[in-house]
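To assess whether ligand presence alters the predicted conformation, the chain was also submitted together with protoporphyrin IX containing FE. Input:
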Amino acid sequence: MAIAVTLHVLAAVIWVGGMFFAYFALRPAAQGFEPAVRLPLWTRALSRFFFWVWIAVLLLPASGYWMIFRVMGGMGSLPPYVNVMQGLGIVMILAYLHVFFAPYRRMRQAVVRGDWPEAGRRLGQIRRLILFNLTLGLATITLAVWASHYR
Ligand code: HEM
């Protein structure tokens, strides 16, 4: 259980912290650069970050369901906050899969073609979904820590 919860929390920290950095540090820092510099920089940064997000989106449910089925007695006897976490986690993972396979893929193709307006539009969609997932991620962590602490 200790190993599973540690891997689980590390995966959450890397994913949510990376989104925080992208939104609140890289985005304002990159503003003002020409599209031909800014957009390829974003595809390079996102491709490296998404490598780690893939590991996180596999590790979070794997470790979460391992704890549920091996330690907590299965789905029937879960504290309500774990059900909420599971629901929010699934929404976050689906939003990430959408980002990866739709706007991010189209943004990369647009950058290769040098189609900056299209790449910029796709980056805008990614930005909104990252803000959505960042909000859910911070809420999930707050809920998980409070609920397990005051249980
Ligand atoms: C399918 C998705 C998920 C499942 C099945 C799941 C399941 C679990 C379970 C069973 C625990 C242990 C609860 C306990 O010890 O009482 C846990 C802890 C935790 N989870 Fe999740 N989780 C999921 C997604 C997430 C996501 C997306 C985040 C954050 C972004 C998250 C953050 C945490 C944190 C921070 C803890 C530690 C709470 C503590 O011990 O203080 N989980 N999760």
